[in-house]
Amino acid sequence: MSPLRSGLAAFLCLAGGASALFPDCVNGPLKGELVCDTSASPRDRAASLISLFTVPEKLNNTGNTSPGVPRLGVPPYEWWNEALHGVAAGHGVNFSDAGDFSHATSFPQPILMGAAFDDELIHAVATVVSTEARAFNNANRSGLDYWTPNINPYKDPRWGRGQETPGEDPYHLSQYVRALIAGLQGDKDDKYKRVVATCKHFVGYDLETWNGNYRYQFDAQISPQDLAEYYMPPFQSCARDSNVGAFMCSYNAVNGVPTCADPYLLQTILREHWGWTDEEQWVTSDCDSIQNIYLPHEWSPTREQAVADALNAGTDLNCGTYYPKYLPGAYAQGLINDTTLDRALIRQYSSLIRLGYFDPPEAQPYRQLNFNNVSTPEAEALAYRAAAEGIVLLKNDGALPLALNASTSLALIGDWANATTQLQGNYAGQAPYLHSPLHAAQARNLTVHYAAGPGGQGDPTTNSWDAAWAAADAADVIVYVGGLDISVEAEGLDRNSIAWSPPQLDMISALAAQGKPTVVLAMGAGQLDSAPLVANPNVSAILWGGVPGQAGGDALIDVLLGDKAPAGRLPVTQYPASYIAEIAMTEMALRPANGSGEDGASASPGRTYMWYTGRPTFPFGAGLHYTTFNASFPSNSTTTTTTSTLSISALLAACPPSTPHKDLCPLPASLLPTNALITNTGKTHASDYVALLFVSGTHGPAPRPQRRLVAYTRLRDIAAGETRTAALEVSLGSLARVDERGRRVLFPGAYRLGLDVDGPPAIEFALEGEAAVLDEWPEPDESVRVGKGVVGVGEGYFVGGYGSGGGEGQEVL
Amino acid sequence: MSPLRSGLAAFLCLAGGASALFPDCVNGPLKGELVCDTSASPRDRAASLISLFTVPEKLNNTGNTSPGVPRLGVPPYEWWNEALHGVAAGHGVNFSDAGDFSHATSFPQPILMGAAFDDELIHAVATVVSTEARAFNNANRSGLDYWTPNINPYKDPRWGRGQETPGEDPYHLSQYVRALIAGLQGDKDDKYKRVVATCKHFVGYDLETWNGNYRYQFDAQISPQDLAEYYMPPFQSCARDSNVGAFMCSYNAVNGVPTCADPYLLQTILREHWGWTDEEQWVTSDCDSIQNIYLPHEWSPTREQAVADALNAGTDLNCGTYYPKYLPGAYAQGLINDTTLDRALIRQYSSLIRLGYFDPPEAQPYRQLNFNNVSTPEAEALAYRAAAEGIVLLKNDGALPLALNASTSLALIGDWANATTQLQGNYAGQAPYLHSPLHAAQARNLTVHYAAGPGGQGDPTTNSWDAAWAAADAADVIVYVGGLDISVEAEGLDRNSIAWSPPQLDMISALAAQGKPTVVLAMGAGQLDSAPLVANPNVSAILWGGVPGQAGGDALIDVLLGDKAPAGRLPVTQYPASYIAEIAMTEMALRPANGSGEDGASASPGRTYMWYTGRPTFPFGAGLHYTTFNASFPSNSTTTTTTSTLSISALLAACPPSTPHKDLCPLPASLLPTNALITNTGKTHASDYVALLFVSGTHGPAPRPQRRLVAYTRLRDIAAGETRTAALEVSLGSLARVDERGRRVLFPGAYRLGLDVDGPPAIEFALEGEAAVLDEWPEPDESVRVGKGVVGVGEGYFVGGYGSGGGEGQEVL
């Protein structure tokens, strides 16, 4: 043990002894109480504990900075901890200045990990994060619950927090988050949770500040169809399918009701429809979103009514001070009752009990973790792998991988060339190191000529040119590393442009005009319209590197050199720069609109690869390789199968009885095999390959999306000449469409399953028989929507039915 | 002499000796050259110097960081120096870390100085700035030219750089800038200029980043009428009436042409129409706006053509590196010639000659200035006065001035309560001190309870409440000091909201509900819609304090206590928060539009107090006092004169022959006296009084503005009971209207001169006879407007005429 580590051990002893980190069930006031009885149920233990609290003590423990109850030996607890892509600094997390606990592994931002399309990777990353979080907690440097993941689909390219999400596709997000929560929380049946994850922001939150609209007051108008089809699936995956420990309601309102005060969202959908009813499952507000119910939403006429509306709706915890400040008044006025107050506290303390908070540490494996378990070599390798797997190759005229030798040199030019904190993006912790591309290139003994870039998005370049010319003149190959960073895309800050900034574009084209191989590494979370770079024959290659974390430079340089082959796919659409002028950020509808319809909708080119009617610069799923691949479905020798017909009733009958929800029933391989054979047909490079499977066809109500992702998997390290099988399991829920009422319905009609951005190869088939509702969708109870901002979700949405012989889906057969 | 000062003297000797600060005409290579002959004309001296340069040496000296010509002993010179409200740090200005030259006087931002409506104050401030600038220059710590003032009218409340301007009214700006330039440059006939001022940004620049529009690429569509009536007058004041030494062309295009490449703006209007033809008058580009001609404007097809287009149009200097980088290519391609290149350099060096650059220092008074002349007690007093004069009282239920005594205490709450750098805004230097309200209150021995505010514009307040409650609970009087700062309004950053942020509004209303006197100090440059505070009976008073500079806290506390009476007036309209949703920031038209007109214009509620058709929360010119005033015109005993009729021809005949331009002819007091008598009718407080005179009436073409400012003056320290005369001279140009062709025309019709936001009192009169053109307006030469973005300023603008019996103006008689 190093001196540092032994120092830690001494600290841990102190923390486990005198500090107030955990309740003392052995010698403290709670000794002998039911809450300390590990044989009792978490609910009974928590209910017993809360019964010991006085009403003021209850009211006092409703904010994120919970003071506990000193009288009872219940220690203070900070509920606000962050771990978006590694244990993150701030709030409940306290890094040391040096030595032990001065760092934690800093993975790429989720948007780049989303581009890997690798659920196994996500599970591994989340497992490291929860391990390191436990080590921090054991040292009294963090809490046990974390307000991650952010799974609002990244539907508008301007959104400043798109970087926090895995992308724009709801199926992708649903799978991603299931892997992530399993890594953060552990198995559902484990006695102790690793940590508690928090799915946020529930729901319809994807706007920071746009044209006078603020997240704190925005009222998202969302149809039941868009809600159930697009905005809700990732949250359903969290609540119904992953048993996540916590939810966070959002700043915005949905259809007139602030989400944190909406029992339709928090009770009817979340708890009742999705069965999220374990005692230890709690809802926190976003930070100060309870205040926002009063102002600016002006939903509740008084502050006391606002806190009561939130607590009664099912918001159990307030990030902020409104609950502790105004719940006493609400209680005195009879706006809340003891049952509701106790419910909130029992949920919170049940959650802590499931985390072992009141249990003997020696019986808990996670309580044994320490700084030896942080930033391990395996964790560092995983951070590198996560960065490398996400990088997307968008253009290559053959310049990549670079053929450098001892006598050739590289110019690294641009604001990201020597990036350090830029590599992390927001909600970052202290990384053990931040390897810039420059650092990585030098570490590989390349001869590098470095120059900073022209600065931020559109600011004057002024004197930045001379160094760039000098570097370019001296080098044989030019690599420009620039794009976006959190000065232009961040929490609170949506982008005003999705074009490359003119100074950057000018510098790139001027450098490229020198006639040397010129590679652009497009960095940052949001896509910049690279059409001018694609069209410029002097630009040899384009890679998108996202926000790649502590090992980002290593991964980028290795990809440039061919030591690692790129295989990521764009997790979002890369729109033309003109797109944002065609659609308001406040527009929540996914479907295109011509603006002349009777519904009064504004003209819209549609949103996401599913509905966008224009021509993207690069589509969702785009990504090139250093080698060539052949893909096929083994069931047929041609690129397209002969059409087969399947019966909806037979598909349902084939569903294993153990499947808890009909939409999760698989499309049986015995009836329609969907696995694909992938062959690396190149001669040189081993490479990963991401198999994406999309469905399209005339089934379900018009308008119909162009295609929808229904399965994906990543095959790793396919050697030149090697063939592998991509397991692509399709659920009936993925084949289903969502109707105007929000119901997920398996429709008869024509289907086409296309591989890799719509094939070839493809499988065509038809479903016949009656449309089947796989998942009902609860209607809002209008009686509770009484605030000023109510926008009726009226009868207009509830049209049609799917009885025998009826239903829109059958019209298309 | 203090040790510090003697240290300075030693440094100055060094600077005057070995350094390259000034050319050495005594012993250097230029000795004996004409440029060193002080008896020759500046033009001949400069032309002689440039004739010594080789072509590469000329091309090399076209950027802001001019290397000079070492061979000739011409030292390097940095043209980019800033002094918006005091000598500002950065670029050519170099503050020391401590001791001498570690600070300079930091005045309020222009928007607050504009609120003083005190041209004498502005002249005094500018004189201090130029004095301190010279002292810095003598110590080789700054240049001799400064890129100030910013006089684009502040027409949209969202504009992030509105803080840099004196306000929204073109007459006000014209008067303000005349006083400012006289203070910066000295008298026109002085042998040596104090410093050179630079009027910017020419023209039509008042947008940073809005909804996908960037200043670097925005093409402002402006009619000749709006251009001549609204956007141009401050620049005319600079060029024609103040002989300013330099202009800066802007980032944006106007009617399709990037301003820095537009000979219509830079030659036809600026130099020919306004007679701005002295050799030493030069135009600089904004920083990198030459690059922007190529990209993103895409006006010129190559970079070489872009620099040639700019130089040929009359942009003499490039802030940036495009000129030195690409002019050699343009020269080689024959896109520029020697005459044009020499013209640019002769202008620059003539300017330096007028600053004494090549002359013996002993004969120049400004060369004797040193740090003893910086931050003098007089300068410090002036910074205080500038802050105090601008503060505007908007609401007062009698709580102000505060009646505090030894047993009462004050809560100072909010993000500005302990403001330091916030007091300065952008383009700031290092101040000798930054006195926050908290500092000032403590210095006055008040008992103060301080708490920070809820943070920026709309961010979560979270844990900021407890300290605010504690402070408010402990105090007898609550003062909230908040609003805006450069986190939400800044260069590059237009506002997304003109409402008070919900957390601030929530905190103010919660504090005010305690029933104690509660005063709101609204800080920041832009107006926040204070309607909720006006309507809230618990809010006792509202003061607007702008961005008040180094003595801001002193001035604010003195106004609160009544040691200084507020008398500032809003230099902009305070719009309702909904205004920004009604008009695009890109809309350049001032006049309202109903959106159904044949011209296809979008609906608009109009801009500025002149044209806005809605009800402002506070109008331009609003401002209350601690005392009461009576105002009257001495020529009549009632509040409104009897109508008199004047002949236009008689008015013109009465114009003194020495008046250089007809629009400057005064309305003769012998025909219509407009001076007002102002009486302080209160019993307690002495107070300043700003007399504003507006014209309205049915004269000139419809639509007609509601009123227009035609004269103002500030009377200082009017004692209780005292009467003073406000000298209000009205020019014929102020009475004139601008027609659709851009001509300034004195129309027959009905006129009303109203005092103090439209009277009473008022003077009504009529003008009769033929409409008279006081100022022609040059038409653009369409042959030069050949770029891609050309928007024709076609015949539609040139309608009607003003011959005998004709003209729209006469229709209203």
Automatic annotation (TrEMBL), chains A, B:
It holds the Pfam family Fn3-like. SMART domains: Fn3_like. It catalyses: Hydrolysis of (1->4)-beta-D-xylans, to remove successive D-xylose residues from the non-reducing termini. It comes from the Eukaryota. It is an enzyme of class 3 (hydrolase). Pathway: Glycan degradation; xylan degradation. Its EC number is 3.2.1.37. The keyword Protease does not apply. GO terms for molecular function: alpha-L-arabinofuranosidase activity; xylan 1,4-beta-xylosidase activity. SUPFAM superfamilies: (Trans)glycosidases, Beta-D-glucan exohydrolase, C-terminal domain. GO terms for biological process: arabinan catabolic process; xylan catabolic process. Belongs to the glycosyl hydrolase 3 family. This is xylan 1,4-beta-xylosidase.
